[in-house]
């Protein structure tokens, strides 16, 4: 098969769409013929070497953490899904012709492959953030970084729970935030004041998606420091906020089932821009710029 790969750390120019060994489904896993795989910031962080802990590059690296496609192998112990089913979900090395998924849900028939592929990491991360913050109907949630992959999914998944959502973005994305149901505020100096003014009352929870605002500013908005959860500022824990990286606090199968239902009901709509696999570098460059609206997706 072909897979997106790199042999040396660097920028998007190190990417190659080239031959790779076929993966196979292990116990509890499925393999899919990939119809679309999304780009997440962790992909360009990985090729840059930032995730390597200072270790030199050994062998070939592969990329991608979510995808949508047609099941063509099921591993031992897998139930409830069969060869030929259309699914989306999360795995490793998904930016390839075949990918192994560790968690998945049935793709709603009305949902495009690229949209379904976008919902794996973004959807699971959103579900996790909202669950950790216990966001309920009537709560006011502030999302710092609401227009990108995780942010836009979280806006809509919080609205589906009946929450009021205030979200930050650049001015250029304010209309987009309004379109998906959030009250937009500009990020940067004075952010906390603007959020307070937009909330007009207490803020119950803060999800830090971008990891760029000083955590003390975010904590000043919340009823207590632990009601700030960050997915991108790993130092935030020192100030009493909570940090989640998706280990033991992740419930991926339940999260993806919830995401599939919201997609089917049009309560979660994901704006996508697609690129063929052999033009992945263009998508990576846009992702690396840090100003994505919705999701970037690679397709065969
Ligand atoms: N811990 C986890 O489990 C987990 C899971 C998934 C992702 N992540 C991390 O979470 C981060 C976001 O992921 P993503 O997929 O949503 O990224 P993305 O799609 O690239 O979106 C980034 C968003 O950040 C916004 N932004 C840029 N500068 C900002 C600032 N100073 N303040 C507030 N917002 C700002 C941008 O809005 P504008 O375009 O309007 O500037 C853009 O919409 C990445 O660092 C990623 O690695 C962590």
**Which percent bin holds the helix content?**
25-40%
How far is the first residue's CA from the last residue's CA? 12 Å
- Estimated structural class: alpha/beta
Give average pLDDT, whole number: 97
DSSP strand content = 25-35%
- Spell out which ligands are present: NADP nicotinamide-adenine-dinucleotide phosphate
**Radius of gyration in whole Å, from Cα?**
19 Å
The counted number of beta strands is 15
Secondary-structure element series: EEEHEEEEHEHEHEHEHEEHEHE
Number of helical stretches of at least 4 residues: 8
What spatial form do the alpha-carbon principal axes imply? globular
How would a crystallographer describe the biggest sheet?
Answer: 6 strands, mixed
Q: Indicate the low-confidence ranges by residue numbers.
A: none
